[in-house]
Amino acid sequence: MAQIKEWLGITAHDNLPARVEQAMIDQQNTSEQLIGWIQLGVVLTFGTVYAISPKTFHPDATFAPVPYVLSLYFLFTVFRLVLSYRMRLTGWMIGLSIVADILLLFGTIFSFHLQYMQPPSFYLKAPTVLYIFIFIALRALRFEARYILLSGLAAVVGWGFMVGYVVYADDMHNMVTRDYVHYLTSNSVLIGAEFDKMMSIILVSLILGLAIVRARSLLVQAVSQTQAAQSLSRFFSQDLANQIKSSECDAAIGDVVSREASVLNVDIRGFTPLTKRSTPEEQIALITQYHARIVPVISAYNGHVDKFTGDGIMAYFGVLAESDSHGADALRAMEEIIKASDRWNVERVAEGLDPVVIHASCASGPIVFGVIGEEHRLEYTVIGDAANVSAKMEKQTKSEGVRAIATRETLEYAVKQGYTNAQTRWELRPNRRVAGVDQPMDIIVLKE
Question: Residue 340 sits in a domain of what CATH number?
Fold first, then answer.
């Protein structure tokens, strides 16, 4: 029973997180607004057709109810549309709305025999009854089978009353016929034809309801996966998240690409002593402010954050896609990072806080970018000399008495890629011993 209620949309899914359920509710609210606009279009279309069509009712007819019924339905539709934007429509409000739709539609059809001065059986042949299928189909937009079934039930009951009224009003008992030709060429009633109409309404409602039950299950999965993807994408750079989502195949161990790129490491010098003088809340606030200032700089220069390691940031340039400016982008990002840290320190000093020394190191060269891990825990990573050297050069900034340092290869890449005024910004320091690197190497340091 509980499963049936879930299928019909009467109860929420027990296994869905609240945020996923809320996302579905938001989608349904949007659908209700869309339904209102479509229904407004329907009533406007019907009203326009009625207004421009030649009037063929009897000239002695003193009352034309159709314009009044259409006007009432127009006002009701506008009211419901406005209400859907101002609040979330509850189940009983939507149910009443569905019943009102059917009543107004059938009220319009019922008025035909009055306007055209014909016996009640006249309205049974009105093609306007086909509009009921539009109203039933509209309810599919909410992905709740109960409203489709309610529309079908209301339509069948309503049409049954319409047929019953015709039979009841037939005092002479000569309107009901079994002759199909006579039925088509007169105002007589063929019970079988009316039964066919009601059966069509029932079957269409049931088929649409079944389709929506299946579609709702897919909707739940889609919303759940979308919510999960949005949450998980916050743990990756946006470009990497997009690459994962747009990939034709699932990520697998051994998926690798190799290309030339630049790897950047940023760190806070003396972070451990700094944390000993602060509370845990202050430590987190410091890291948050630090990331808020550095990460946008990396992104502005086409870089992508690979990981956060406490107070460290590892980023790469030209890894996710081939880049003809990865070296130049990395050096420009390093310059801007130092400027951003200077601006941050001005703010901190003004607030009576200690300044924070940020330093950065970068290396360039061939890298391998791929998936590592095991079946249930995968991770994208960068492997290569550039990644290793960049990480090992981090402490070299203190030895050199600078805040930004890079390999000579990075500068060579950058110059080839259009980086100008390198000599005025960077100083070459050859044959430097870097901890963890076997051979002496040429480095460049940012002039300050």
Answer: 3.30.70.1230
| Residue 367: strand pairing partners | 259
Cβ-Cβ contacts under 8 Å for 175 (sequence gap 6 or more): 119, 121, 166, 167, 187, 188, 189
Q: Kindly report whether the global pTM for this prediction surpasses the value 0.85.
A: no
Give the Å distances, CA to CA, from 84 to 11, 81, 87, 162, 341.
21, 5, 6, 31, 49
Three-point CA angle 270, 306, 396, nearest 5°:
35
* 438 shares a domain with 324: yes
Tell me the pLDDT tens digit for each residue of 325-363: 999 999 999 999 999 999 999 998 998 888 889 999 999
The 10 Å CB-count burial string (b at 16+, else e) for 226-246 is ebeeeeeeeebbeebbeeeee
Distance CA(408)–CA(393), nearest Å, equals: 12
**What size, in residues, is the chain?**
448
Residue 413 has a pLDDT of 92
Q: Diameter of the chain by CA atoms?
A: 116
Copy the structure tokens of residue 53.
């069509």
